Amino acid sequence: MKKTLFSAAKPTGRLTLGNYLGAVENWVQMQDDYNSIFCVADLHSLTVPIEPSVLNDNSNAVFANYLACGLNPDKCVIYFQSHLKAHTEMGWLFNCLTHFGEANRMVAFKEKMQQKKEVLVGLFDYPILMAADILIHDAEVVPIGEDQRQHLELARTLAQRFNNKYGETFKIPTGLYPKIGAKIYDLQNPTKKMSKSDEDTSGTILLEDKPDVIVAKIKRAVTDSDTRIIASNDKPGVTNLLTIYSKLTNKTIKEAEQHFEGANYGKLKAETAEAVVETLKPVQDKFNYYMTHKDEMYAIAKQGVEKVAKYATNKVDVVKEKMGLICPK
Ligand code: TYM
Predict the structure, then answer these.
(1) Which of 16, 96, 236, 246 is the most buried (most CB within 10 A)?
(2) Distances (CA, A) of 76 to 10, 54, 73, 177, 305
(3) Is 316 close to ligand 1, i.e. is its CB under 6 Å away?
(4) Residue 8 beta carbon below 6 angstroms from any ligand 1 atom
(5) Is residue 40 scored above 80 in pLDDT?
């Protein structure tokens, strides 16, 4: 019996190179080895103010990019989160299992709260919905980037708490983080993570960016005055480019440093841009295909949710009953 793997991305924006290197690329490599389930976490996108048409378009684009990057519906399940009611239902049950202080400690919430004019309760609550996303499927493996570590810890805590309080019910999920690329940084501000929700996209490579845009963004990437091409804490811009280059060319950071020994930043940027363009070219071709064949995507999503709905719905029923709710007979 294969273990269950679950992961997701929220369509608050278009997928970035950070999403690809920190998560989606791993998903593609792991989809054969697990009972793999991926969703477009559209409900999570409502945690920030978003225009309906933008959410709609982003949700299609994220789904299309999952397929374009290599998720294969013959090997894994892909669906839209809002098509499976078990997510929100389990989310409520977990709200009533989570302490306010626990939710209040989430760093991602604190950071976002400082940036936003309008802070929604959903934003505060979203790690709890994320725990529900994972646990309705009894997922044991959750491949994610570094920024989701604290949220995954909360999912583990809630699973353990439920088991202790109501008896063995959930498997305890484990987060899987890539060795290289677990956190890709903004090209203009390389101490901040590359984010799809940023309005200013000059430091963000979107999977849909055209080759000339990718080349220009990488050319303008912040480096520093010292010319050595090495990965170190005091050279965040160079380290970030080396990370992207290494990951895309299947080299270790050491090998990449050796490759660029004695070279200038121009060469590092040109070869990194080339690696990104080459990687994204086939992805973009497939992306364009799916965005013009949405019916195919929706058929995949329908089949996907049908495969997992029964298990997840049953899981919610088990949890409700254990918590003392009377289930319809
Ligand atoms: P999201 O949509 O912000 O990101 C999707 C995935 O991409 C990773 N990631 C990065 N990795 C490396 N460098 C970066 N700059 C970078 N930016 C993003 C994220 O770590 C994530 O793995 N809450 C989640 C979505 C979600 C989820 C879930 C994930 C909802 N339910 C259940 C796992 C399990 C989120 O906001 O990811």
Answers:
(1) 16
(2) 18, 27, 5, 20, 11
(3) no
(4) yes
(5) yes
Residue in 10, 110, 112, 269 annotated catalytic: 112
Q: In what order do the strands lie in the sheet with 141-143?
A: 76-80, 35-40, 4-9, 141-143, 174-176
The alpha carbon of 160 and the centre of ligand 1 are apart by a number of angstroms equal to 23
Q: Is the pLDDT of residue 224 over 90?
A: no
**From the candidates 2, 116, 171, 193, which is the catalytic residue?**
193
What pLDDT was estimated at residue 198? Answer: 87
Residue pair 292/264 in contact (Cβ under 8 Å)? The answer is no
Q: Which domains does the chain have, with CATH numbers?
A: 4-177+294-322 (3.40.50.620), 211-289 (1.10.240.10)
Q: Are 170 and 162 in contact (CB under 8 A)?
A: yes
Name the residue with the closest Cα to ligand 1, atom 26. 8
Tens of pLDDT along 156-169?
999 999 999 999 99
Q: How far apart are CA 310 and CA 208, in angstroms?
A: 35
- As a whole number of angstroms, the distance between CA 157 and CA 198 comes to 31
Residue nearest to atom 1 of ligand 1 (CA): 9
Alpha-carbon radius of gyration of the chain? 20
Residue 87's pLDDT is what?
Answer: 98
**Residue 17: which of 283, 251, 266, 259 has the closest Cα?**
283
pLDDT of residue 304: 98
Among 147, 153, 154, 248, residue to substitute to test ligand 1 (most atoms within 8 Å of Cβ): 147
Judge contact between 8 and 81, C-beta under 8 A. Answer: yes
Ligand 1 pocket member 180 (CB < 6 A): no
pLDDT value at position 255?
97
What is the three-class DSSP state of 175? strand
Whether this model's pTM surpasses 0.90: yes
